[in-house]
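Bench log. Compound arrived from synthesis this morning; before running ITC I wanted a structural hypothesis for how potassium ion sits in the protein. Inputs:
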Amino acid sequence: MKILSCKQQREADAYTISHESILSINLMEKAASLITDAICRRWDKARRMIVFAGAGNNGGDALAVARMLFLKHYPVEVVFFNVTGKISEECLTNIRRLKECGFANFTEVSSQFDPPKLTRNDIVIDGLFGAGLNKPLSGGFAAVVQYINASQSTVVSIDTPSGLMGEDNTYNVRQNIIQADLTLTIQLPKLSFLFAENEEYVGEWEVLDIGTSQEFMKNVTTPYYITEEAKVRSLIRPYKKFAHKGMRGHGLLIAGSYGMGGAAVMAAQACMRSGIGRLTVHTPICNHNLVQTLVPQATVEDDLHERFFAEPTDLDNYQAIAIGPGLGQEEITAKTTIEQLDSCYVPTVLDADALNNLSVYRNFLNRVPKQAILTPHVKELERLVGRCSNSYERLSKAKELSSYLQCYIVLKGAWTTIITPEGNCYFNPTGNPGMATGGSGDVLTGILLALLAQGYPQEAACRLGVYVHGLAGDIARERQGVISMNAADIIEALPEAWKKLTETK
Ligand SMILES: NC(=O)C1=CN([C@@H]2O[C@H](COP(=O)(O)OP(=O)(O)OC[C@H]3O[C@@H](n4cnc5c(N)ncnc54)[C@H](OP(=O)(O)O)[C@@H]3O)[C@@H](O)[C@H]2O)[C@@H](O)CC1
Ligand SMILES: Nc1ncnc2c1ncn2[C@@H]1O[C@H](COP(=O)(O)OP(=O)(O)O)[C@@H](O)[C@H]1O
Ligand SMILES: [K+]
């Protein structure tokens, strides 16, 4: 699914209107009817609905929703802000239609505003600004937003919380953005909905399909996508009847140190559950028995060192390599990691301490093999690119790093983002907060190693691996609950996740 900028969303509306012979006002009517349904599904007529409408088309949506709720006998009040005298045509039509229905509870604000009392039981419908917002809110609008935010009412935003930019909010004034409990967004989510720091504004969100032109959607270009299950399924390659383990690749996992053998174990177990032919784990001597016992399917290759990764190993026999889980950050390990990179001629995953070690020696960053997959969480990324003040900046810096190194970056978190060297960003929809616990990232590294070893191209491996990892996390949550689930449960859920993705529907 493509994610469009607000400007593109407005172009999509305009294109749909001119090419699908639908009038602008009717497209708005469609949107308003879906929004009304979504509201009526959640709240009954005991709830007072207070509609705040702006003078643009977002306000037009809100006024149409007010009419529809009124006709369904909800108690509705409308506050319409007409401060410049510039009202969109569709907004005007909806004011007229509302009044024609006999609706009288209508306050028009042009300068002085005496706000209605908002109580815990009320539903505020925020239709002040949508995709047309072009600067941070200030003055009277800022005061209205702050008034709504300070109330105990439930807030439903139409299309986007008023005041929130669709993409970059670096220069926004955060206290002047509506804090919605629910955002009913039209056609597609906005990029800014996918950023952690905007959760307090967007709340829960639901996408309403108003039937934007498919042709427009097909041709419009954007670097931002949400990965869909159908796409992921299409990436999976079935095994041939005469498949043998040689065809499914031999991978090398360089992982573990004294006290962090578990990371090597979890990555290896996840790898062995993701279709790899053969796996060798290179780990310090102290972890030999642990790995051998807990992952008997894998071969163990001892490092020369008792406790740390201290000697680069020969990579000739492998189709893919993953370095990092639980490696530690000893000086010797950092140097060895960098030395090891020079011989990584096959697809490579760099995770966790491999990235932390690189961030200590940033001048060696250019030794990262081209096309490598880097899997940092937010902190690990910032160690590489410097502190970022928000998610948009972080994403921009990750894109720069990916382009500079010509490698793939898997920026982990909710909505894990896969960034390609060409600058495309694929947001992953699976996964849940139960995965925010030690070891979950190691599991992902194991999955990615398995896919690369089987010959999946980097982009496909990232999109498929991250999706199945999150899906296994969602299955683990079903089984164990969000509090108790841990990384071992994600591994245990992998077979079901893979089965689900390969079963015909
Ligand atoms: N048929 C359709 O087209 C459909 C449209 N749909 C709906 O339309 C919405 C987009 O509508 P829109 O383009 O009219 O923009 P909207 O967000 O209402 O605001 C525009 C006004 O705000 C003003 N303004 C901007 N920033 C400001 C600020 N900081 N402080 C003060 N003023 C500010 C700006 O003024 P300007 O600066 O341009 O003079 C302009 O007058 C979209 O989100 C969806 O809800 C759906 O129903 C689907 C069908
Ligand atoms: N709130 C969340 N929603 C979805 N996925 C999450 C969430 N929190 C964490 N995850 C996933 O869990 C994994 C955690 O990885 P990481 O931070 O490297 O943990 P560790 O280093 O402990 O293994 C990542 O793949 C991340 O995307
Ligand atoms: K809005």
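What the model suggests: Residues 6-222 form a domain with the Rossmann fold fold (CATH 3.40.50.10260). The chain has a mean pLDDT of 96.
ITC booked for Thursday regardless.
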